[in-house]
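During the second half of the funding period, the structural biology subgroup turned its attention to how the target accommodates small molecules. The most pressing case was adenosine monophosphate, which had performed well in the primary screen but for which no bound structure existed. We therefore specified the complex as follows and requested a full 3D prediction, including the ligand pose.
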Amino acid sequence: MIQTSPTPADIEGAIRNIADFPKPGIQFKDITPVLADARLFAGSIDLLTAGFKPGMVDAIVGIDARGFIFAAAAALRLEAGFVPVRKKGKLPFQTHEQSYDLEYGANSIAIHTDAVKPGSRVLLIDDLLATGGTAAAAASLLQKVGAEILQISFLIELKFLGGREKLKDYPVSSLVVY
Ligand code: AMP
């Protein structure tokens, strides 16, 4: 049987909306059905890495935790290294940290100081762009280690939250936009 490559609409069809999770008023985008479907998972990596070939990128940076899944698979696809940006306190070596505001309070994320060589060409990947605070903080960590961000890619963008505004210094790509 001939299988065509999945489209963003196919991926959107598998994303499950969960009302009021993890708290009232949030509609959680559950990507586990995409991951569980081999064709959709592979197709999402094809789409997230579109426009890039092995040799064009030194490292794929994934954001804790669902970003790791897509970034690690994209790294194998592009024959690049994988670099984690983790929640504060999880990385064992010396780190740079960056805090960012949440609706209530603040969060901090971190990267190893030697995560990439200065001048490395990187793609930054996360599952979802909401307010953009997380990705903007990750981008400033990448500036601190001297990386060149070629693109920031998301599976999902919640456009009504305006997260792209915080990322306007970089090319941003998202597959499924709400
Ligand atoms: P933000 O910093 O507001 O752009 O939030 C992005 C981060 O929070 C991503 O790492 C997402 O995994 C997570 N996130 C935010 N909103 C949602 C949502 N509605 N559904 C699933 N994950 C979300």
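Two results from this model are relevant to the next phase. Residues 26-29, 63, 66, 126-135, 163 surround adenosine monophosphate (CB under 6 Å). The longest strand covers residues 148-157.
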